[in-house]
Amino acid sequence: MDIQLSKPTIVLVHGALEDSSLWTHGVIQGLQRDGYPVKAFSNPLRGVAHDAAYLRSLLDSIEGPVILVSHAYGGAVIGQAGDDPKVKALLYAGSPMPGVGESANDCLVRFPGGDFASSVELSPYTLPDGTSGTNVQVKADKYRYLVAADVPESVVALMIATQRPISLAALNEPLTSAAWTSKPSWQIRPLLDPVIPVQEFKFEADRAHSHVIELNSSHAIPITFPDVVVDVIGQAARATMK
User: Fold this and answer.
1) Of 25, 87, 185, 216, which is most buried with the most CB atoms under 10 A?
2) Domain AB hydrolase-1: where (predicted)?
């Protein structure tokens, strides 16, 4: 048997203010080295239901078992879409784990200590049909502090320049399902993250009975600790594919 056929497909779901290149700093390379099929999902960042439907369309194209891996807001999307029977495990790398009726933003404000709201700026947008909304981006002078304090300055400059705005409505949209209630989950918990308070990470992992790995990392775990992300994905694969 081809060893690659015996391994689950790893679907990587980036979060707000970023794109799928987030996973090219070592995560994709490590997974490919270890023989895992990999799909980097291009998250629309328009709304939980919208983004989860798009993710489900990708899952429909994959044969065999899947492990969903998220960063940041991507945690809301994999929670919503992860009820697909192909999905065997969920891995949250610096991601919120909202429950049913909760939004990503609820996970930022449930406990004190998060600085997301004070570090972002809002800008209106209008679509061709006349509907409008509000986009969210991190202020350039707050970006390194909020997102990437331990990332090289040259990389931070690229991250700032390639920010993809997320719709404010997406951050405020509650989930209607949460796959972590019925499927095994792993949480890679950054201890130096100004976006999500550590108390929130602990609360979420406790209620989900997640396996927890703690790191002295900023919010940008896939960039600062790609080898750890790859290792934990391997743990999840071995535990769920026995």
Assistant:
1) 185
2) 10-232
